[in-house]
Amino acid sequence: MSSNSFGKLFTVTTFGESHGPAIGCVVDGCPPGLEIAPEDFAGDLARRATGNSRYTSQRHEADEVEILSGVYEGRTTGTPIALLIRNTDARSKDYDELAQTFRPGHADYTYWQKYGIRDPRGGGRASARETTMRVAAAVIAKKWLAEKSGVRVRGWLAQIGEIVPELPDTAAVDFGTVESNPFFWPVAAQVPQLEKYIDALRKDGDSVGARVNVIAAGVPPGWGEPVYGKLDAELASALMSINAVKGVEIGAGFASVAQRGSEHRDEITARGFLSNHAGGILGGISSGQDVRVSIALKPTSSILKPGRSVNLAGEEITMRSKGRHDPCVGIRATPIAEAMVALVLMDQALRHRAQCADVGEVRPRIG
Ligand code: EPS
Question: Is the CB of 122 inside a 6 Å radius of any atom of ligand 1?
Answer without folding.
Answer: yes
